[in-house]
Design brief:
The complex is a heterodimer of chains A (193) and B (211). By secondary structure, chain A is mainly α. Chain A has two domains: 133 residues, no CATH class; 38 residues. The longest helix of chain A has 39 residues. The termini of chain A are far apart. Classes of the chains: A mainly alpha (193), B mainly alpha (211). The interface between A and B is large, with 101 and 109 residues.
Chain lengths: 193, 211
């Protein structure tokens, strides 16, 4: 039963996951919460792990969630679930490729899907920032009413530094992630965060 | 014509065990070496598929990227299935897909075992906080980069903000926002006059993104 739930949850994520890994995150998060697979904190641990390990985020997430929930065979169920929809769709689409891409209904659908995926990517930030940059939900009245202790100043500083490194200094994202992992380890080891 | 010749040329490779092993290894390496998701994988995919193995021509790779981006799911899986199938049919598609998935499956499994064994360690916990904070910045930049290419009309801005509010604030299931995007997108392009070039700008934009 558990295996089927995992498989179905991740099959749905693969089927509706337009716009790549980041846009799929809110969907993964919502499924994880709906079926009680893990907490928000553990979900953002998973995301952090995905950023410093190779491979597609959705595959990493499926493996991680499946493993934590039902062990190695759970990991296999979830991973096959998330991979199967795009595998099957691709096999079908290859057969009538040109007709698919120039169909006005398909084109129209994508004028709607593309902006939605950007909204979903931004929504992913809210999930990650919760408990890391602020001590609670990101969108709430506390943002204005709570004192300075609501904000985690050092992680906010890390986020700002990461943006500066990636934009102004053009450092590759993976190097920035590893650098911030090292900085975080030192700060954590010395009890600052 | 040249494309047809190449196709004939390729049909000679019937997908022997040796061919499949080479395909598997090529995609296994791609899965192993790309960190940071699908978009980071595209340039490396071009390198491996065109320059190293001559699996596809430059033109076919662009087609493959365009199709992969317009389908749901993981871009790397889409591309692996596409290339594998073009080369050796169904068995090629399966070989390439398993090859690209396996590295992350193995590495995440090992990472969970190792981290589980370490337990609560302030250094590891600190490293996670550091990466999570940096990821917030990374996601923001990624959204801005895509937004610059895609968000050109008020309609698109409304959809983007609507999806953000629905999922981020009201906790509505993300699947519904995708379906709403499909319906509104079709209605919008039909209303705008026979759907003429409704998606062209963004089609090109997402092509550029891939470069």
């Amino acid at each position: 039963m558990g295996y089927l739930t995992l498989f179905a949850a991740f099959f749905r994520i693969g089927l509706f996951g337009f716009g790549g890994g980041l846009a799929m995150l809110p969907m993964i998060y919502q499924s994880v919460q709906q079926f009680g697979f893990m907490s928000v904190t553990e979900f953002s641990d998973l995301l952090a792990l995905s950023q410093v390990t190779p491979g597609p985020i959705a595959v990493n997430a499926a493996t991680y969630v499946g493993l934590r929930f039902l062990g190695l065979s759970g990991a296999a169920s979830a991973t096959i679930g998330v991979v199967l929809p795009e595998f099957l769709i691709m096999l079908i689409v290859c057969r009538f490729l040109d007709r698919f891409r120039s169909n006005p209904l398909v084109e129209g659908a994508f004028t709607g899907i593309r902006p939605v995926t950007i909204g979903l990517i931004l929504a992913a930030i809210l999930y990650v920032a919760e408990g890391v940059l602020v001590n609670g939900p990101v969108i709430s009245a506390q943002l204005f009413t709570a004192g300075v202790e609501y904000y985690n100043l050092i992680p906010i500083l890390i986020a700002v530094c990461a943006v500066i490194l990636m934009t102004v200094l053009k450092v590759k994202p993976i190097r920035v992630m590893l650098l911030m992992a090292a900085a975080g380890a030192v700060l954590g080891g010395t009890g600052l965060i | 014509m040249t494309k047809e010749d190449q196709n004939k040329e390729r049909d000679k490779k019937t997908g022997t065990l040796r061919d499949l092993a080479s395909l598997f290894w090529g995609f296994f390496k791609l899965g192993l070496l790309t960190i940071g998701g699908g978009y980071a994988m595209i340039p490396q995919m071009q390198q491996v598929a065109v320059d190293d193995h001559h699996w596809l021509t430059e033109e076919e790779v662009v087609d493959c990227i365009a199709v992969s981006q317009s389908l749901p799911g993981i871009i790397a899986i889409n591309m692996a299935t596409y290339i594998g199938r073009r080369l050796y049919g169904l068995k090629g598609a399966i070989t390439a897909t398993v090859g690209v998935v396996l590295p992350s499956f193995i590495i995440i499994s090992l990472a969970v075992l190792v981290l589980g064994a370490i337990g609560d360690n302030p250094w590891i916990a600190g490293a996670f906080v550091g990466v999570k904070a940096a990821v917030c910045g990374l996601i923001l930049l990624s959204a801005i980069r895509l937004g610059k290419q895609i968000l050109r009309t008020p309609f698109q801005w409304v959809l983007m903000l609507g999806a953000l509010a629905a999922v981020g604030f009201f906790g509505i299931n993300a699947v519904w926002t995708i379906l709403a995007g499909v319906i509104l997108g079709i209605l919008y392009s039909q209303i705008r006059g026979s759907g003429k070039h409704g998606g062209d700008e963004t089609e090109q934009a997402s092509g550029k993104e891939a470069d």
